[in-house]
Amino acid sequence: MPASHPIELLRFNTCGSVDDGKSTLIGRLLYDSKSLMEDQIEALERSADITGGGQINLANLTDGLRAEREQGITIDVAYRYFATPRRKFIVADTPGHVQYTRNMVTGASTANLAVVLVDARQGVIEQSRRHTYLASLLRIPHLVIAINKMDLVDWSQERFQEIRDDFEDFLPRLDMKDVKFIPMSALNGDNVVEPSKHTPWYVGPALLGHLETVHIASDWNLNGFRFPVQWVNRPNDPTNHALHDFRGLSGQIAGGIIKVGQKVMVLPSGQKSTVKRIWTLGGELTEAFCPQSVTLVLEHDLDISRGDVIVSLDSLPGASSELEAKVCWMHPRPLQRGRKYYLKHGTQTVQAVVTSLDYRVDIQTYEQQLGPTELGLNDIGGIRLKTAKPLIFDGYATNRLTGSFILIEQGTNATVAAGMLQPPIAPVTPEYNDFAI
Length: 437
Known about the structure:
This protein has about 425 residues and is α+β, with helices and mostly antiparallel strands. The chain contains eight helices and 23 strands.
């Protein structure tokens, strides 16, 4: 493939209830797509007597913890990397137990696609609804409903359609636009990498074929340029002429496209300048786009530090210290009104206090239960916060990177919540805006 057309990277996660076959599915993908090294195959064969009854246990490829193998369950998020000639993949295998819902949020936070596994015998259960809702809440663009263990229901087309109908009863309420249903047997490999002879009534692709071809080029927000400054890059190497007096601004592009010569604004100050150069590890560019990591050099020597945000002039974000958000609570100690936390947003961390608990989401009905006194472990709800200084942000539905945050418990530094910001009321008003370009 020509260098001008790099292979795309697809991030996806698997989720579902306990023993739905998530780890086995990933193991089958790796095994059948010939993405395993010889030593990995040998390790599988050596560990076959632990849980596999003398047979290779594909789940062991992701269930690396000893407790996971002994119990036959997934406890922690496991990431695996593989590639085909058409695409590269990073897959997160997330736990199915309800007490590990927070792990699913972690694994899915950067995903392009979510695979929700359903046991064909059990059908749609609470965890199926919970994980589908979380995929919608996290704005994962693509969803696959993998109806697994079809071999245990005699490859019944009627059973497949029943489960599909159950999902389609509530999917319209979740605003999921790209949903694919695939019947499969992860254990036997049917419709995982190769099409199955057992499903002549199914005319769609196998899972890997869908992963290779699903359109992801438009998943990132390329409309409004956003660049949270992570590091002011000052190598100041007197022996290297190119680096002498070099001052660049390093970070990951969180939205939009940037070009040499483009006018930009630094927030919250409102100072303006023009992009002079764009550097990456591989050399200099004339333009870059989300989610590339780059170093920008501006025409003017402005007072810029970590936590500032460089944006395009045509699309300004919001700024406020009064925030409204949806959160997934991840800690055994419940969230209550008046609690203080550190709020990490982009490249900056500020102090925040919870001023209101507006509602809790009922996972069974997706309705809002107003005025809860607290949010417990794995609860999802709406809250209001006040921060010590204004945040520069977009609504999460507009930009997943600039619209998300985490809450950190003071004293323990434990991550206690993942949050998604509601849209700002108005665009930012810079502190001053008189710097001549």
